[in-house]
Amino acid sequence: MALKVLYALDTARTQWYHFKAIIIAGMGLFSDAYDLFCLPPILRLLGRIYYQKSHLPTDNFDNNDNNFVIHRHVDSTLLGVAFLGTAIGQLVFGRLGDRIGRRRMYGLSLMVMILSALGCGFSICTSPSCVLVSLGFFRFLLGVGIGGDYPLSATIMSEFANKRTRGSFIAAVFSMQGFGILASSIVTMVVCGIFHGASHPKPKEKTPIEADLAWRLILMLGAIPAAMTYYWRMMMPETARYTALVELNVQQAAKDMEKVLDVSLSQIAEDESLTLPQDPSSYPLFSKQFLRLHGRDLFGCSASWFLVDIVFYSSNLFQSQVYGKYLGKKYKSNVYEDAINVALFQAILAICSTIPGYWLTVYFIDRIGRRKIQMMGFLVMALVYFAIGIPYTSYWQDNINGGFMVLYGLTFLFANFGPNTTTFIVPAELFPARFRSTCHGISGAAGKVGAIIGAVGFGSASHGQTEDHKAVKILLVILGGVCLLGLAVTYFFTPETKGRSLEENEE
Protein backbone atom coordinates (compact mmCIF):
# COMPACT_ATOMS: atom_id res chain seq x y z
CA MET A 1 0.00 0.00 0.00
CA ALA A 2 1.44 3.36 -1.11
CA LEU A 3 0.75 5.80 1.71
CA LYS A 4 0.49 9.46 0.81
CA VAL A 5 2.83 10.57 3.60
CA LEU A 6 5.57 8.18 2.48
CA TYR A 7 5.14 9.21 -1.15
CA ALA A 8 5.40 12.85 -0.05
CA LEU A 9 8.66 12.09 1.78
CA ASP A 10 10.14 10.29 -1.23
CA THR A 11 9.25 13.07 -3.69
CA ALA A 12 9.68 16.16 -1.48
CA ARG A 13 11.95 18.87 -2.78
CA THR A 14 15.04 19.63 -0.72
CA GLN A 15 14.01 21.99 2.07
CA TRP A 16 15.54 23.81 5.01
CA TYR A 17 14.44 21.04 7.37
CA HIS A 18 16.62 18.52 5.53
CA PHE A 19 19.70 20.65 6.19
CA LYS A 20 18.63 21.19 9.80
CA ALA A 21 18.28 17.42 10.24
CA ILE A 22 21.78 16.92 8.78
CA ILE A 23 23.26 19.29 11.36
CA ILE A 24 21.28 17.85 14.28
CA ALA A 25 22.05 14.24 13.35
CA GLY A 26 25.58 15.01 12.23
CA MET A 27 26.58 16.65 15.49
CA GLY A 28 26.53 13.26 17.15
CA LEU A 29 29.01 11.96 14.56
CA PHE A 30 31.02 15.17 15.03
CA SER A 31 31.26 14.46 18.77
CA ASP A 32 32.05 10.82 18.04
CA ALA A 33 35.08 11.73 15.91
CA TYR A 34 36.22 14.40 18.37
CA ASP A 35 36.14 11.95 21.28
CA LEU A 36 37.89 9.14 19.40
CA PHE A 37 40.55 11.15 17.55
CA CYS A 38 41.59 13.44 20.39
CA LEU A 39 43.04 10.32 22.02
CA PRO A 40 46.37 10.04 20.08
CA PRO A 41 47.74 13.43 21.26
CA ILE A 42 46.26 12.85 24.72
CA LEU A 43 48.15 9.56 24.93
CA ARG A 44 51.34 11.59 24.43
CA LEU A 45 50.39 13.71 27.43
CA LEU A 46 49.45 10.66 29.51
CA GLY A 47 52.70 8.92 28.61
CA ARG A 48 54.77 11.91 29.70
CA ILE A 49 52.77 12.54 32.88
CA TYR A 50 52.29 9.01 34.20
CA TYR A 51 55.00 6.85 32.63
CA GLN A 52 58.07 9.06 32.17
CA LYS A 53 57.87 10.37 35.71
CA SER A 54 60.50 13.01 36.47
CA HIS A 55 62.28 13.16 33.14
CA LEU A 56 61.44 13.14 29.49
CA PRO A 57 62.83 10.57 27.06
CA THR A 58 65.72 11.65 24.90
CA ASP A 59 66.99 10.59 21.49
CA ASN A 60 68.75 7.72 23.24
CA PHE A 61 65.66 6.62 25.13
CA ASP A 62 65.64 2.85 25.47
CA ASN A 63 62.59 1.35 23.82
CA ASN A 64 62.97 -1.67 26.09
CA ASP A 65 62.11 0.44 29.14
CA ASN A 66 59.11 -1.11 30.88
CA ASN A 67 57.39 2.28 31.09
CA PHE A 68 57.37 2.53 27.32
CA VAL A 69 55.84 -0.94 26.99
CA ILE A 70 53.12 -0.12 29.56
CA HIS A 71 52.29 3.00 27.60
CA ARG A 72 51.77 0.98 24.44
CA HIS A 73 49.46 -1.44 26.23
CA VAL A 74 47.51 1.53 27.64
CA ASP A 75 47.25 2.89 24.09
CA SER A 76 45.63 -0.29 22.78
CA THR A 77 43.49 -0.81 25.87
CA LEU A 78 41.95 2.67 25.89
CA LEU A 79 41.13 2.33 22.20
CA GLY A 80 39.81 -1.19 22.68
CA VAL A 81 37.43 -0.39 25.56
CA ALA A 82 35.98 2.56 23.62
CA PHE A 83 35.34 0.33 20.60
CA LEU A 84 33.84 -2.39 22.81
CA GLY A 85 31.47 0.18 24.29
CA THR A 86 30.62 1.40 20.80
CA ALA A 87 29.73 -2.12 19.64
CA ILE A 88 27.48 -2.65 22.67
CA GLY A 89 25.85 0.75 22.17
CA GLN A 90 25.11 -0.02 18.53
CA LEU A 91 23.43 -3.30 19.40
CA VAL A 92 21.43 -1.98 22.38
CA PHE A 93 20.34 1.39 21.00
CA GLY A 94 19.78 -0.07 17.55
CA ARG A 95 17.31 -2.58 18.94
CA LEU A 96 15.65 -0.05 21.24
CA GLY A 97 15.31 2.36 18.32
CA ASP A 98 13.07 -0.19 16.61
CA ARG A 99 11.19 -1.26 19.73
CA ILE A 100 10.67 2.07 21.51
CA GLY A 101 11.21 4.64 18.77
CA ARG A 102 14.05 6.54 17.12
CA ARG A 103 13.27 9.88 18.74
CA ARG A 104 12.95 8.58 22.30
CA MET A 105 16.36 6.92 22.19
CA TYR A 106 18.04 9.74 20.27
CA GLY A 107 18.27 12.11 23.19
CA LEU A 108 19.32 9.33 25.58
CA SER A 109 22.34 8.33 23.49
CA LEU A 110 23.43 11.96 23.31
CA MET A 111 23.05 12.39 27.07
CA VAL A 112 25.26 9.34 27.68
CA MET A 113 27.90 10.93 25.42
CA ILE A 114 27.74 14.26 27.25
CA LEU A 115 28.00 12.81 30.77
CA SER A 116 30.73 10.35 29.77
CA ALA A 117 32.84 13.05 28.12
CA LEU A 118 32.63 15.08 31.31
CA GLY A 119 33.40 11.97 33.36
CA CYS A 120 36.60 11.37 31.37
CA GLY A 121 37.90 14.70 32.61
CA PHE A 122 37.11 13.79 36.23
CA SER A 123 39.24 10.63 36.21
CA ILE A 124 40.93 11.76 39.42
CA CYS A 125 42.88 9.31 41.58
CA THR A 126 46.22 9.24 43.36
CA SER A 127 48.06 6.73 41.19
CA PRO A 128 48.60 6.40 37.40
CA SER A 129 46.92 3.00 37.23
CA CYS A 130 43.87 4.30 39.11
CA VAL A 131 43.54 7.31 36.81
CA LEU A 132 43.74 5.16 33.71
CA VAL A 133 41.26 2.58 35.01
CA SER A 134 38.82 5.41 35.71
CA LEU A 135 39.49 6.92 32.29
CA GLY A 136 38.97 3.53 30.67
CA PHE A 137 35.62 3.13 32.43
CA PHE A 138 34.32 6.49 31.20
CA ARG A 139 35.74 5.83 27.71
CA PHE A 140 33.71 2.62 27.68
CA LEU A 141 30.52 4.52 28.61
CA LEU A 142 31.38 7.16 26.03
CA GLY A 143 31.66 4.40 23.46
CA VAL A 144 28.18 3.15 24.41
CA GLY A 145 26.74 6.60 23.71
CA ILE A 146 28.69 6.96 20.47
CA GLY A 147 27.56 3.50 19.37
CA GLY A 148 23.93 4.38 20.03
CA ASP A 149 24.21 7.44 17.84
CA TYR A 150 25.26 5.49 14.73
CA PRO A 151 22.09 3.51 13.95
CA LEU A 152 19.77 6.25 15.17
CA SER A 153 21.36 9.06 13.14
CA ALA A 154 21.56 6.97 9.97
CA THR A 155 18.01 5.64 10.30
CA ILE A 156 16.44 9.01 11.12
CA MET A 157 18.16 10.72 8.20
CA SER A 158 17.24 7.94 5.77
CA GLU A 159 13.59 8.06 6.85
CA PHE A 160 13.35 11.85 6.55
CA ALA A 161 15.14 12.15 3.20
CA ASN A 162 13.71 12.01 -0.30
CA LYS A 163 14.79 9.11 -2.49
CA ARG A 164 16.60 11.29 -5.03
CA THR A 165 19.14 12.78 -2.60
CA ARG A 166 18.93 10.33 0.31
CA GLY A 167 22.49 9.06 -0.15
CA SER A 168 23.94 12.56 -0.14
CA PHE A 169 22.03 13.50 3.00
CA ILE A 170 23.17 10.43 4.96
CA ALA A 171 26.74 10.91 3.68
CA ALA A 172 26.61 14.56 4.78
CA VAL A 173 25.63 13.41 8.29
CA PHE A 174 28.57 11.00 8.34
CA SER A 175 30.93 13.63 6.90
CA MET A 176 30.63 15.57 10.15
CA GLN A 177 33.17 13.08 11.46
CA GLY A 178 35.81 14.79 9.35
CA PHE A 179 35.09 18.13 10.97
CA GLY A 180 35.12 16.42 14.38
CA ILE A 181 38.63 15.12 13.69
CA LEU A 182 39.74 18.59 12.64
CA ALA A 183 38.07 20.20 15.68
CA SER A 184 39.78 17.77 18.07
CA SER A 185 43.14 18.67 16.54
CA ILE A 186 42.50 22.41 16.73
CA VAL A 187 41.24 22.25 20.34
CA THR A 188 44.27 20.18 21.32
CA MET A 189 46.67 22.65 19.71
CA VAL A 190 44.94 25.65 21.29
CA VAL A 191 44.74 24.15 24.79
CA CYS A 192 48.33 22.86 24.72
CA GLY A 193 49.50 26.17 23.25
CA ILE A 194 47.91 28.09 26.12
CA PHE A 195 49.42 25.80 28.75
CA HIS A 196 52.79 25.87 26.96
CA GLY A 197 52.79 29.66 26.92
CA ALA A 198 51.99 29.78 30.61
CA SER A 199 54.67 27.33 31.79
CA HIS A 200 57.43 27.46 29.10
CA PRO A 201 58.77 23.94 29.76
CA LYS A 202 62.05 22.94 28.12
CA PRO A 203 62.56 19.54 26.44
CA LYS A 204 64.65 18.00 29.24
CA GLU A 205 62.77 19.55 32.16
CA LYS A 206 60.32 17.70 34.36
CA THR A 207 56.82 17.53 32.88
CA PRO A 208 54.78 20.43 34.37
CA ILE A 209 52.08 19.39 36.81
CA GLU A 210 49.63 21.57 34.89
CA ALA A 211 49.81 19.12 31.96
CA ASP A 212 47.51 16.85 33.96
CA LEU A 213 44.81 19.49 33.62
CA ALA A 214 45.34 19.97 29.87
CA TRP A 215 44.26 16.48 28.75
CA ARG A 216 41.23 16.58 31.06
CA LEU A 217 40.12 19.89 29.59
CA ILE A 218 40.49 18.61 26.01
CA LEU A 219 38.28 15.60 26.76
CA MET A 220 35.63 17.60 28.61
CA LEU A 221 35.31 20.15 25.79
CA GLY A 222 34.01 17.28 23.66
CA ALA A 223 30.73 17.49 25.58
CA ILE A 224 29.96 20.99 24.24
CA PRO A 225 28.91 20.19 20.63
CA ALA A 226 26.76 17.29 21.83
CA ALA A 227 25.09 19.45 24.48
CA MET A 228 24.39 22.20 21.93
CA THR A 229 22.14 19.92 19.86
CA TYR A 230 20.37 18.09 22.70
CA TYR A 231 17.39 20.48 22.74
CA TRP A 232 16.90 20.27 18.97
CA ARG A 233 17.01 16.49 19.06
CA MET A 234 14.26 16.43 21.63
CA MET A 235 12.18 18.77 19.46
CA MET A 236 12.41 16.52 16.38
CA PRO A 237 9.22 14.55 15.68
CA GLU A 238 9.30 10.79 15.32
CA THR A 239 9.96 9.77 11.72
CA ALA A 240 6.84 9.29 9.63
CA ARG A 241 7.95 5.84 8.54
CA TYR A 242 8.27 4.59 12.09
CA THR A 243 4.95 6.12 13.13
CA ALA A 244 3.08 4.83 10.06
CA LEU A 245 4.71 1.43 9.47
CA VAL A 246 5.69 0.31 12.99
CA GLU A 247 3.20 2.10 15.27
CA LEU A 248 0.54 1.90 12.50
CA ASN A 249 -0.62 5.49 13.15
CA VAL A 250 -0.80 7.07 9.70
CA GLN A 251 -2.77 10.12 10.82
CA GLN A 252 -0.15 11.03 13.42
CA ALA A 253 2.61 10.53 10.85
CA ALA A 254 0.90 13.01 8.54
CA LYS A 255 0.53 15.56 11.35
CA ASP A 256 4.21 15.23 12.27
CA MET A 257 5.34 15.71 8.69
CA GLU A 258 3.16 18.78 8.23
CA LYS A 259 5.16 20.45 11.02
CA VAL A 260 8.51 20.02 9.32
CA LEU A 261 7.89 19.77 5.57
CA ASP A 262 6.41 22.37 3.27
CA VAL A 263 3.27 20.35 2.56
CA SER A 264 -0.33 20.74 3.68
CA LEU A 265 -2.06 18.14 5.81
CA SER A 266 -4.79 17.73 3.19
CA GLN A 267 -2.19 16.50 0.70
CA ILE A 268 -0.80 13.74 2.90
CA ALA A 269 -3.65 12.79 5.26
CA GLU A 270 -5.29 9.45 4.56
CA ASP A 271 -9.01 8.78 4.80
CA GLU A 272 -10.08 8.43 8.44
CA SER A 273 -11.63 5.08 7.58
CA LEU A 274 -8.28 3.70 6.40
CA THR A 275 -7.15 0.72 8.43
CA LEU A 276 -3.67 -0.50 7.84
CA PRO A 277 -3.16 -4.24 7.60
CA GLN A 278 -0.75 -5.71 10.08
CA ASP A 279 2.85 -5.14 9.14
CA PRO A 280 3.55 -7.65 6.36
CA SER A 281 6.97 -8.27 7.87
CA SER A 282 5.35 -9.89 10.91
CA TYR A 283 8.09 -12.51 11.20
CA PRO A 284 10.47 -12.04 14.14
CA LEU A 285 14.10 -11.00 13.94
CA PHE A 286 16.44 -13.85 12.94
CA SER A 287 13.55 -16.14 12.06
CA LYS A 288 13.88 -18.39 9.02
CA GLN A 289 11.82 -15.96 6.96
CA PHE A 290 13.97 -13.01 8.06
CA LEU A 291 17.16 -14.86 7.15
CA ARG A 292 15.68 -15.93 3.81
CA LEU A 293 14.62 -12.38 2.91
CA HIS A 294 17.34 -10.28 4.56
CA GLY A 295 20.13 -12.59 5.75
CA ARG A 296 22.23 -12.06 2.63
CA ASP A 297 21.96 -8.28 2.92
CA LEU A 298 22.79 -8.34 6.64
CA PHE A 299 25.83 -10.50 6.02
CA GLY A 300 27.03 -8.20 3.23
CA CYS A 301 26.62 -5.05 5.35
CA SER A 302 28.24 -6.59 8.44
CA ALA A 303 31.16 -8.21 6.61
CA SER A 304 31.96 -5.05 4.63
CA TRP A 305 31.91 -2.88 7.75
CA PHE A 306 34.00 -5.44 9.67
CA LEU A 307 36.68 -5.50 6.97
CA VAL A 308 36.90 -1.75 6.38
CA ASP A 309 37.23 -1.00 10.10
CA ILE A 310 40.15 -3.41 10.43
CA VAL A 311 41.93 -1.39 7.77
CA PHE A 312 40.75 2.09 8.77
CA TYR A 313 41.76 1.88 12.43
CA SER A 314 45.01 0.08 11.65
CA SER A 315 45.89 3.04 9.42
CA ASN A 316 45.20 5.43 12.27
CA LEU A 317 47.54 3.51 14.56
CA PHE A 318 50.25 3.43 11.89
CA GLN A 319 50.01 7.21 11.96
CA SER A 320 52.25 7.43 15.03
CA GLN A 321 55.10 5.72 13.18
CA VAL A 322 54.65 7.95 10.15
CA TYR A 323 54.56 11.02 12.39
CA GLY A 324 57.78 10.13 14.16
CA LYS A 325 59.76 9.25 11.05
CA TYR A 326 58.49 11.93 8.69
CA LEU A 327 58.59 14.89 11.08
CA GLY A 328 61.54 13.61 13.10
CA LYS A 329 60.15 15.04 16.36
CA LYS A 330 59.33 11.89 18.25
CA TYR A 331 60.51 12.26 21.88
CA LYS A 332 62.49 15.44 21.06
CA SER A 333 60.11 18.18 22.14
CA ASN A 334 58.52 19.05 25.46
CA VAL A 335 55.20 17.59 26.56
CA TYR A 336 52.99 20.28 24.98
CA GLU A 337 54.91 20.53 21.72
CA ASP A 338 54.76 16.75 21.38
CA ALA A 339 50.94 16.73 21.64
CA ILE A 340 50.69 19.78 19.35
CA ASN A 341 52.80 18.06 16.68
CA VAL A 342 50.61 14.94 16.73
CA ALA A 343 47.45 17.08 16.56
CA LEU A 344 48.91 19.15 13.72
CA PHE A 345 49.72 16.01 11.77
CA GLN A 346 46.13 14.77 12.25
CA ALA A 347 44.76 18.15 11.14
CA ILE A 348 46.84 18.12 7.96
CA LEU A 349 45.62 14.61 7.10
CA ALA A 350 42.03 15.65 7.82
CA ILE A 351 42.22 18.71 5.58
CA CYS A 352 44.11 17.06 2.73
CA SER A 353 42.50 13.61 2.58
CA THR A 354 39.84 12.76 5.18
CA ILE A 355 37.40 15.66 4.69
CA PRO A 356 37.74 15.72 0.87
CA GLY A 357 36.99 11.98 0.85
CA TYR A 358 33.76 12.47 2.76
CA TRP A 359 32.55 15.25 0.50
CA LEU A 360 33.45 13.45 -2.70
CA THR A 361 31.05 10.78 -1.49
CA VAL A 362 28.38 13.41 -0.74
CA TYR A 363 28.67 14.69 -4.31
CA PHE A 364 28.92 11.41 -6.21
CA ILE A 365 26.93 8.87 -4.23
CA ASP A 366 23.56 9.60 -5.84
CA ARG A 367 25.24 9.84 -9.24
CA ILE A 368 27.54 6.80 -9.22
CA GLY A 369 25.82 4.65 -6.61
CA ARG A 370 26.82 3.11 -3.30
CA ARG A 371 28.06 -0.22 -4.63
CA LYS A 372 30.46 1.21 -7.21
CA ILE A 373 31.94 3.71 -4.75
CA GLN A 374 32.46 0.98 -2.16
CA MET A 375 34.17 -1.32 -4.67
CA MET A 376 36.35 1.49 -5.99
CA GLY A 377 37.42 2.47 -2.48
CA PHE A 378 38.39 -1.06 -1.51
CA LEU A 379 40.33 -1.54 -4.76
CA VAL A 380 42.33 1.70 -4.52
CA MET A 381 43.09 1.10 -0.84
CA ALA A 382 44.37 -2.40 -1.66
CA LEU A 383 46.67 -1.06 -4.38
CA VAL A 384 48.02 1.66 -2.08
CA TYR A 385 48.70 -0.77 0.77
CA PHE A 386 50.55 -3.07 -1.59
CA ALA A 387 52.55 -0.08 -2.89
CA ILE A 388 53.51 0.83 0.67
CA GLY A 389 53.86 -2.66 2.12
CA ILE A 390 55.70 -4.72 -0.51
CA PRO A 391 58.76 -2.39 -0.75
CA TYR A 392 58.53 -1.26 2.89
CA THR A 393 61.71 -2.91 4.21
CA SER A 394 63.72 -2.24 1.08
CA TYR A 395 62.71 1.39 0.54
CA TRP A 396 60.09 3.08 2.73
CA GLN A 397 61.34 2.23 6.24
CA ASP A 398 64.28 4.64 5.89
CA ASN A 399 62.78 6.89 3.26
CA ILE A 400 59.40 8.17 4.47
CA ASN A 401 59.19 11.21 2.20
CA GLY A 402 56.61 13.22 0.33
CA GLY A 403 55.81 10.30 -1.98
CA PHE A 404 55.06 8.07 1.00
CA MET A 405 52.86 10.76 2.52
CA VAL A 406 50.83 11.04 -0.69
CA LEU A 407 50.25 7.28 -0.71
CA TYR A 408 49.42 7.27 2.98
CA GLY A 409 46.94 10.12 2.49
CA LEU A 410 45.25 8.20 -0.33
CA THR A 411 44.31 5.42 2.09
CA PHE A 412 42.21 7.92 4.06
CA LEU A 413 40.85 9.64 0.95
CA PHE A 414 39.54 6.41 -0.57
CA ALA A 415 38.43 4.96 2.74
CA ASN A 416 36.04 7.91 3.08
CA PHE A 417 35.35 8.21 -0.65
CA GLY A 418 34.59 4.54 -0.38
CA PRO A 419 33.62 1.88 2.16
CA ASN A 420 34.04 3.85 5.40
CA THR A 421 31.10 6.04 4.33
CA THR A 422 29.04 3.63 2.24
CA THR A 423 28.96 0.99 4.99
CA PHE A 424 27.24 3.61 7.16
CA ILE A 425 24.68 4.40 4.45
CA VAL A 426 23.62 1.07 2.96
CA PRO A 427 22.29 -0.62 6.15
CA ALA A 428 19.98 2.36 6.69
CA GLU A 429 18.37 1.73 3.29
CA LEU A 430 17.97 -2.04 2.92
CA PHE A 431 15.85 -3.35 5.78
CA PRO A 432 12.17 -3.09 6.81
CA ALA A 433 11.24 -0.17 9.06
CA ARG A 434 10.80 -2.34 12.17
CA PHE A 435 14.25 -3.92 11.71
CA ARG A 436 16.13 -0.97 10.18
CA SER A 437 17.81 0.44 13.27
CA THR A 438 18.53 -3.04 14.65
CA CYS A 439 20.22 -4.25 11.46
CA HIS A 440 22.24 -1.04 11.19
CA GLY A 441 23.39 -1.60 14.78
CA ILE A 442 24.37 -5.20 14.06
CA SER A 443 26.36 -4.12 11.00
CA GLY A 444 28.07 -1.34 12.94
CA ALA A 445 28.88 -3.65 15.85
CA ALA A 446 30.56 -6.04 13.42
CA GLY A 447 32.60 -3.07 12.23
CA LYS A 448 33.71 -2.24 15.75
CA VAL A 449 34.86 -5.83 16.25
CA GLY A 450 37.05 -5.18 13.23
CA ALA A 451 38.20 -1.92 14.80
CA ILE A 452 39.25 -3.78 17.95
CA ILE A 453 41.24 -6.23 15.83
CA GLY A 454 42.86 -3.32 14.01
CA ALA A 455 43.54 -1.29 17.14
CA VAL A 456 44.71 -4.06 19.46
CA GLY A 457 46.12 -6.53 16.95
CA PHE A 458 47.98 -4.10 14.70
CA GLY A 459 48.99 -1.92 17.64
CA SER A 460 50.52 -4.80 19.57
CA ALA A 461 52.31 -6.23 16.55
CA SER A 462 53.72 -2.99 15.18
CA HIS A 463 54.56 -1.28 18.49
CA GLY A 464 56.37 -3.94 20.41
CA GLN A 465 59.49 -3.45 22.47
CA THR A 466 61.53 -3.02 19.30
CA GLU A 467 60.20 -1.93 15.95
CA ASP A 468 60.10 -4.92 13.60
CA HIS A 469 60.11 -3.56 10.05
CA LYS A 470 59.46 -6.98 8.58
CA ALA A 471 56.35 -7.36 10.77
CA VAL A 472 55.10 -3.95 9.65
CA LYS A 473 55.62 -4.96 6.02
CA ILE A 474 53.64 -8.17 6.51
CA LEU A 475 50.83 -6.32 8.26
CA LEU A 476 50.58 -3.71 5.51
CA VAL A 477 50.36 -6.43 2.87
CA ILE A 478 47.72 -8.20 4.97
CA LEU A 479 45.70 -4.96 5.06
CA GLY A 480 45.86 -4.86 1.27
CA GLY A 481 44.54 -8.42 1.21
CA VAL A 482 41.72 -7.44 3.59
CA CYS A 483 40.74 -4.68 1.16
CA LEU A 484 40.58 -7.19 -1.70
CA LEU A 485 38.37 -9.41 0.44
CA GLY A 486 36.13 -6.38 1.07
CA LEU A 487 35.95 -5.82 -2.69
CA ALA A 488 34.81 -9.43 -3.18
CA VAL A 489 32.19 -9.20 -0.41
CA THR A 490 30.82 -5.98 -1.94
CA TYR A 491 30.67 -7.50 -5.42
CA PHE A 492 28.80 -10.63 -4.34
CA PHE A 493 26.67 -9.45 -1.42
CA THR A 494 25.97 -5.69 -1.62
CA PRO A 495 22.96 -4.56 -3.71
CA GLU A 496 22.57 -1.07 -5.14
CA THR A 497 20.04 1.12 -3.28
CA LYS A 498 20.33 4.32 -5.32
CA GLY A 499 17.20 6.00 -6.64
CA ARG A 500 14.60 3.77 -4.95
CA SER A 501 12.36 4.35 -1.95
CA LEU A 502 13.14 2.52 1.28
CA GLU A 503 10.11 0.29 0.75
CA GLU A 504 11.30 -0.63 -2.77
CA ASN A 505 14.76 -1.48 -1.40
CA GLU A 506 13.13 -3.64 1.28
CA GLU A 507 11.47 -5.69 -1.43
From TrEMBL:
CDD domains found in the cross-reference section: MFS_PhT
GO molecular function annotations of the record: symporter activity
Gene3D superfamilies: MFS general substrate transporter like domains
GO cellular component: membrane
Keyword Transcription regulation annotated: no
Major subcellular location class: membrane
UniProt KW keywords: Membrane, Phosphate transport, Symport, Transmembrane, Transmembrane helix, Transport
SUPFAM superfamilies according to UniProt: MFS general substrate transporter (SSF103473)
Family the entry assigns: Belongs to the major facilitator superfamily. Phosphate:H(+) symporter (TC 2.A.1.9) family.
Any one Pfam family match given in the protein's UniProt record, by short name: Sugar_tr
PROSITE patterns with a match to the protein in the record: MFS (PS50850), SUGAR_TRANSPORT_1 (PS00216), SUGAR_TRANSPORT_2 (PS00217)
Subcellular location: Membrane
A biological-process GO annotation: arbuscular mycorrhizal association
Protein name listed in UniProt: Major facilitator superfamily (MFS) profile domain-containing protein
Transmembrane segments: 21-43, 76-93, 105-124, 136-157, 169-198, 213-232, 298-319, 339-361, 373-393, 405-426, 474-493
Family matches, as InterPro entries: MFS_dom, MFS_sugar_transport-like, MFS_trans_sf, Sugar_transporter_CS
Topological type in the membrane: Multi-pass membrane protein
Keyword Membrane: yes
Ranges where the Major facilitator superfamily (MFS) profile domain occurs: 21-498
